[in-house]
Design a protein that fits this description.
Shape: flat
Low-confidence stretches: none
Strand order of the largest sheet: 1-2-3
Number of helices: 4
Number of domains: 2
Mean pLDDT: 86
Structural class: alpha+beta
Radius of gyration: 19 Å
Number of strands: 3
Helix content: 40-55%
Distance between the termini: 38 Å
Length: 86
């Protein structure tokens, strides 16, 4: 994994985006301290893109819409999460 400073990233952004697109992960530093990581899209994000391009899913960055036939049984996930935080 390559490590670069912010100044270098700004000067060569297109080259580093191309590396991330190919699957490489790059650690970004600010005055020697690691602050961020640049890398390819996650498998989940890639799946959303594929479904969107196929017309199976409509997504504007918010909660996905267009999924039909999904049924949830039992308590809502939010309720379960809140109970487990206690």
């Amino acid at each position: 994994m390559e490590t670069i400073g912010i100044k270098t990233l700004k000067a060569q952004l297109s080259a580093y985006i191309a590396k991330a697109r190919l699957g490489e992960r790059i650690v970004i530093t600010d005055r020697g301290e690691e602050v961020a990581e640049l890398g390819p899209l996650s498998p989940a994000r890639q799946a959303v893109q594929v479904l969107t391009h196929r017309g199976k899913l409509q997504w504007n960055g918010e909660k996905p819409a267009g999924l039909k036939g999904v049924r949830i049984r039992g308590e809502a996930v939010a309720t379960t999460v809140l109970e487990n935080r206690r």
